[in-house]
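Write out this protein's structure.
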Amino acid sequence: MSTQIIRPARSLSGSLTVPGDKSISHRYAMLAGLAEGTSRLTNFSTGADPHSSLSCMESLGATVVRNDDGTIDVTGVAGAFRQPTVALDCGNSGSTMRMLSGLIASHPHTFTLIGDASLTVRPMERIRKPLSQMGAKMDLVEGHAPITIHGGPLHAIDFTTPIPSAQVKTAVLFAGLQAEGTTSLSEAIRTRDHSEHALRAFGATLTRSEASANQPAKLSILGGQRLKAINATVPGDISSAAFFLCAALLFPDANLVLDSLGMNPTRAALLDVIAALGGKIKILSVEEHNGEMIGTIQVNRAPDAASSAPFVIGGALTAQVIDELPALAAIAPYTANGLIIRDAQELRVKESDRIALVAKNLSAMGAKFTENPDGLEIPGGQSLHGAAIDSGDDHRIAMAFSIAALRASGETEIHGAESARISFPEFYTSLDALAQR
C-alpha cells in the first residue's frame, strides 16, 4: 500500500484534459466486442476498470489492439461470443460485472464472472432479478460474486427499476438487445443515459417515452438487432474532473480550464452543484459526438455571497451526482454555507462504505459534521488540519481527501493512494501540475 504526502497549496491554476469517461469507455468496449467489424476508440479511459471490460471482451473472442498513439481497436464477434476458457475477471469493476452479465446472458455458453475482494462483497441480486425474469439462469453466492451464468435464449420483459441504477438499466437493455420481443424498462428517476447513446451509435434502435403525471419514463428496445463497428472519441470523464472542480472552490484566485470534457446533461448536474457551492463556470465551447456533448469550461471561485442555508443534495440530484459525492463532501467544510447530502444510501455499497469513510476522514481532519444512514450534514466555514487518511483502497476517497488536503494546515498522508489508478492513474501528476505552492 502506497502513501502520498499532500502539502497545502496557495492556489490552483492551469488547464487539464482528464482521461476518457469510464462509463462511456465500458459501454463502447462491450458493444464493440459484440459488434461486427473493427471499432477504433480514441481517448479510451486510462483507468483500470474499463480495461477489465476490454480484457473480458478478449476472453469472449473479440480482438483488442492497443495502438502506439493511444487509440484502441476492437474487432467484435459479430453477435456470437465464444465459450471463454477462463473466468471473466472483472477486477474492481462493478460496472463490468453488472453490465457484462446482461450482454452475455443470451449466449449458449457457461460463464463465470469473478472480481477482487471489494467487488465480491458488492450487491449483485439487483441484476439477477430482471435477467432471471428474461429467462437467464444465474448462480450467485449469497447475492454476491462470483456469478455463474448458464446462457441461453431470452425473452422480453417490461421491467421497472426499484432503485436508480444506470448499471441495472444497462444490463437489461443489453440483454433486451438480444432477446425475443421488445423489452421495456421504466425508471422513476432518470439515470445517466450513456447506454442509450452508445447503443444508437452502434446502430441499434431504441425509443424513450417521457414521464407523465401517472407514468415514469420508459425505454424500449427490440431484440435481434445487430451492431456495426464505429469510430468514436470518448469525452473526458466529468467524475474525474470533479476533484479539480472541487479544488477550484478552495481558493479565491483559482483559475482552471478543463478541455474536451463530457457534458452529458444526465452527468452535468455536477456543474450546477459546483456553482451552488460557490463556483463560477463559463462554457467556452461545446459540440456533439455520437450523442455525447463534449466541451471546454473555465472554473473560478465566485465572490462569497451573503450567508444562507446549506446546499442540499437529495432525491434525483443525488442519483445524478452519486460518484461525485465523496469529493463534494470532502471540501464541504471549506465552503461558505456547507452541504447536506440525503438519499445517498447507495454510497454504502460502492467500492467501500463511502459515507463511513468520508465521516472517518473528515473527523481525522478535525471537521464537524453529522453522519446519517443516507448521507451527511456538513457545516461550512471550517478550518481543517492535515491528518492520516484511510482511503479504504477506494479510489474516490483517496482523491477526494487529496483535494481537501490542499486547504488543510500541515501535511496530509493519503494511505492507499495507489487506488487512484482504478479510474485516474494520472491524478497525482495532474494535481502537482495545477497546485500553486
